[in-house]
Amino acid sequence: MSDRETRCNAGGQFMDRGRMNQNGVVQPLLTDLYQITMAYAYWKSGKTDDHSVFDLFFRSNPFHGEFTIFAGLDECLRFLESFHYSESDIEYLRRTLPEGTENEFFDYLGDLTAKDVTLHAIDEGTVAFPRVPIIKVEGPLIIAQLLETTLLTLVNYASLMATNAARYRMVAGKHVNLLEFGLRRAQGPDGGLSASKYSYTGGFDGTSNVLAGKLFNIPVKGTHAHAYITSFSGIEELKARLLKHKLTGVTGDLLELAIKYRQKLSTVLNVSMEESSEGELAAMVSYAIAFPDGFMALVDTYDVKRSGLLNFCAVALALNDLGYQAVGIRIDSGDLAYLSCLARETFERVAERFKVQWFNKLTIVASNDINEETILSLNEQGHKIDCFGIGTHLVTCQRQPALGCVYKLVEINGQPRIKLSQDVEKVTMPGHKNAYRLYSSDGHALIDLLQKVSETPPEVGQKVLCRHPFQESKRAYVIPSRVEPLYKIYWQNGKITQKLPTLELVREKVQKSLKTLRNDHKRTLNPTPYKVSVSDNLYNFIHDLWLQNAPIGELS
């Protein structure tokens, strides 16, 4: 049994690799069959020494936006580190490939690693744009081809998820907390873990996913479900009602204190005690005894105004008498703008009436199938929500379930390769290229420029002709105030060549990179497209090669 199989069997799906955890499912057989059949055909054709260059890129930004966050690079590099077909992999392939596949090919696969591959990439967490390769893979044709599907699956969802999270962060604003609550709605356990990881990358503050917290060191947050409230029918069911004072250690009766305050509050808040639920009160007292320093209660099980807020405030004031401060409430249904304003007004009245100033700062969390449009609408209505718990729409990326990254051969043995199509968007840009981001004097990114690797890089203060790759009349001179080369070599000679950032640093990188974009590129409605261009040299190269490869029609 190989080391990889041992780690998978002993450690479960995710293997502890020190800095971050590597998914044990990510292995060479996590690929499409045609990658392996092509590898055999390449091998039979004597193309084992052919040197190739592949570009991994996407054709359009997701969610009707004009930017994408690149994520998943760390997982790609860990995959290259561990790339090796195990004995059981080879045995499976012997049974799966057609009869007549030569045994020597399986010996070849058994010795194959990624040591001869060079991987160039932009930094993880960087804003990326259509047609600019986010990863370039150089190396022997067979191994570079075999990497395709796995690299795509590692980058596609990660980048989509990070972008979705970044958009939520922008519409919510920097002063509102965002929590990912989507594990139960995600596409399986792998989807749930990836969603937690990359939503944090994109700007969320925490997750309800406990395993993601352990694996990726993401803050975990949570309250309780409606089931906890409805599991109590009345105060007579409380088996524990006593709580020691936080400072003095003197035991107090939390239920008795809560009932006393509930009577006072019914007058202050003009709410009838008869309309409120005693079962809800009992549940809140029980939960407060379990978590006196972290008491946050769900208040919409029965009625927020007539029951939930009354019972919460009563228990919170009782906790205050025993030296504790409640954290806040969660609202999971109803008119979130109205109810959050009602809750804030209630807390302010209680703070003033009972001289408990921290009541003014109680946290209001809202959940309930929230999406980007919901937050924008709540902003317009003037809500008082401090934190959003977002699940389904975030983790499933319902507005666009796939990013659509592709992996295209652009050079073989030093010769450029181009894929033509009647759909211009699907025509590839051939050859080994470099990419640069050109900045204006105010610090904002102006344009991304692709060049042939043989060209001299653009220089600060020097005029550069930037052309649309396919529309001849679209061109402009740019005089950059700063030039940023986008690619670094991350993998070469069988090892990672850059110090990889922690998840926390990638998260910071996302926000820094977004700040380089003008606001009109980031706005939700009709954002301005960001320009991606090619050099004059590359433009002519593309179109000459296009003419050379395009068949000439004949009319008769």
Automatic annotation (TrEMBL):
Keyword Coiled coil (UniProt): no
UniProt modification remark: Transiently phosphorylated on a His residue during the reaction cycle. Phosphorylation strongly increases the affinity for substrates and increases the rate of nicotinate D-ribonucleotide production. Dephosphorylation regenerates the low-affinity form of the enzyme, leading to product release.
Domain Nicotinate phosphoribosyltransferase N-terminal per the UniProt entry, residue ranges: 29-156
Nicotinate/nicotinamide phosphoribosyltransferase domain boundaries: 327-428
InterPro entries registered for this protein in UniProt: Aldolase_TIM, N/Namide_PRibTrfase, NAPRTase_C, NAPRTase_N, Nic_PRibTrfase-Fam, Nic_PRibTrfase_pncB, Nicotinate_pribotase-like_C
Enzyme Commission identifier(s): 6.3.4.21
Pathway: Cofactor biosynthesis; NAD(+) biosynthesis; nicotinate D-ribonucleotide from nicotinate: step 1/1
Catalytic activity: 5-phospho-alpha-D-ribose 1-diphosphate + nicotinate + ATP + H2O = nicotinate beta-D-ribonucleotide + ADP + phosphate + diphosphate
GO molecular function, one term: glycosyltransferase activity
Cofactor dependency: Mg(2+); Mn(2+)
GO biological process assignments: NAD+ biosynthetic process via the salvage pathway
Keyword Transcription attached: no
Function recorded in the entry: Catalyzes the first step in the biosynthesis of NAD from nicotinic acid, the ATP-dependent synthesis of beta-nicotinate D-ribonucleotide from nicotinate and 5-phospho-D-ribose 1-phosphate. Helps prevent cellular oxidative stress via its role in NAD biosynthesis.
UniProt similarity note: Belongs to the NAPRTase family.
Protein name: Nicotinate phosphoribosyltransferase
The organism of origin for this protein: Glossina morsitans morsitans
Taxonomic placement: Eukaryota, Metazoa, Ecdysozoa, Arthropoda, Hexapoda
